[in-house]
TrEMBL record, chains A, B:
PANTHER family referenced in this protein's UniProt entry, alphabetically: HTH MERR-TYPE DOMAIN-CONTAINING PROTEIN (PTHR30204:SF93), REDOX-CYCLING DRUG-SENSING TRANSCRIPTIONAL ACTIVATOR SOXR (PTHR30204)
Gene3D superfamilies: 1.10.1660.10
One protein family per Pfam: MerR_1
Record-linked CDD domains: HTH_MerR-like (cd00592)
Residue ranges of domain HTH merR-type in the record: 1-70
Top-level taxonomy: Bacteria, Bacillati, Actinomycetota, Actinomycetes, Kitasatosporales
Protein name as it appears in the record: MerR family transcriptional regulator
Record keywords: DNA-binding
DNA sequence: CTTGACCTTGACGCTGGGTCAACCCTCCAT
DNA sequence: ATGGAGGGTTGACCCAGCGTCAAGGTCAAG
């Protein structure tokens, strides 16, 4: 006959755990000797080891009880199910490992790969790190609000970057992004942007996107919030008869303000 | 700006969890809008996703806080450590899977492989299943009390089984193990056992074991508890001048009771 | 007889939130 | 303007699976 600590040690559990199993009725209370000590037999060892095998597999104790007190085919089914969960858990941990490695490598897990690639392309064009951080934050906000649109938006952005004028536009954002009203470069930016807009209108791309108004508003306001100079550039373009940013519109000539 | 549910959804957590992180100071409380709603920016998204990445890896939230607020080399070390734990956990789960498979196959995980092999050999000799269960339980009790001796004991048992007389002895245990005083077969068993003992004495094996007295007592009492007929056989042998079971002793001739 | 290692019951603590409850804010359709 | 849906807010209680005292009774050895 065994004492509780012998039983516990052999099964690889603590004495406290064994008593817990008694309390919840998972392991039957054994006989006591004359001094009140519990005395265990081989059946208790077998049961306890089964309990641990299942519990180690992550099975809640209540289900362990069900399984151990069920018929053999029910037991086999349950074990099958548990094994499936174990395999899934192992895969999950492997995924966690790779995410952890990416986190340690300094990757921004807050954004889908497409956006990361886009930002890398900007960086490759010589765009300053401070501006890229602004863009990154803006894309995070957009991705958080419309996660399923982000890939198609980024695809459009990539197309835009195929245009050398657009590349020139971005190169303005190199270095300090602290634009101030009166900076003469703002006019240069506006000139480039206007050329791009004209080309877009000529190519019939205006109004050709599949995004709804609400989303266009989101893009515009996010970009305006993040890029301080954008407001000033937009003001100039507005004088020249343009409206919009994400979606370009030409204001009718008769409503143009006097230049 | 994001609401709490947008933030939570994007990071793949519940609103409740985000508020929990605020309460424990893991994620800073953001500004509120005029109606008291929390408004989140991109930095919160980044921080929350980092929290989740670490928490998914099983890191307790208190340590997550430490890590995120620490320097880069401390962070890298911590991640290294976590990844080590993850690998260990994956190996543990794979071990659990194999134990689970053995459990489902009806194996007795309560005994080391050596004992299982020994019992299989008995089964192969035609020993009855009921007796084998008795032996199994006895070995479980012994293994639980002296786990590091069990392998050498079993090795001795295997040697014994090389003797045809011992095999004959075991074959008596086939079928019902309910021995009763007066059963003539008990004398047969005693005869065989005596032959074995004489041979052991002649081979100089008596007293040649490396086990201490306490352990010999344990073996004897366990076997006597489990095998009901053993007592009767031992009584006959005692009359013939033998003592012991695990460790054989020849009682000096002058102390022999009259036969 | 003492000492130290066990045994007993009982109660509280811990992680990481889930799950109400009770109430406020905003927006949209009527 | 009104009512309802669908957000948001705090607060309080609840869970598993034990760990960790606390406050003693028992056993074996010296």
């Amino acid at each position: 006959m065994l004492t509780i600590s012998q039983l516990a040690a052999y099964a690889g559990v603590t004495v406290r755990a064994v008593r817990h199993y008694h309390k919840i009725g998972l392991l039957p209370e054994p006989e006591r000797d004359r001094s009140g000590y519990r005395t265990y037999d081989a059946a208790a060892v077998v049961r306890l080891i089964r309990i641990r095998t299942l519990a180690d597999a992550g099975v809640p104790l209540a289900k362990v009880q069900e399984l151990l007190d069920a018929g053999p085919e029910e037991f086999a089914d349950g074990v099958q199910e548990i094994d499936k969960d174990l395999r899934a858990e192992i895969r999950r941990l492997q995924g966690t490992r790779s995410r952890l490695a990416r986190l340690a490598a300094g990757e921004h897990l807050a954004l889908p790969q497409s956006v990361v690639d886009y930002l890398d392309r900007l960086r490759g064009l010589g765009v300053g790190e401070r501006y890229i951080e602004l863009e990154r934050d803006a894309w995070i906000m957009i991705a958080a609000q419309v996660p399923d649109l982000i890939d198609s938006v980024i695809a459009k952005k990539h197309e835009e970057l195929d245009d050398p004028d657009m590349v020139r536009l971005y190169s303005f954002f190199t270095g300090e992004p602290d634009w101030r009203a009166g900076d003469p470069r703002i006019v240069e930016v506006a000139d480039i942007l206007e050329r791009l807009m004209i080309r877009a209108v000529e190519a019939g791309e205006v109004g050709a996107d599949d995004f709804d108004d609400q989303f266009v508003d989101l893009m515009d306001s996010t970009m305006l919030e993040s890029a301080p100079g954008a407001e000033l550039v937009l003001a100039i373009l507005k004088e020249r008869g343009w409206r919009g940013w994400t979606r370009i519109e030409r204001v009718p000539a008769d409503r143009l303000p006097p230049s």
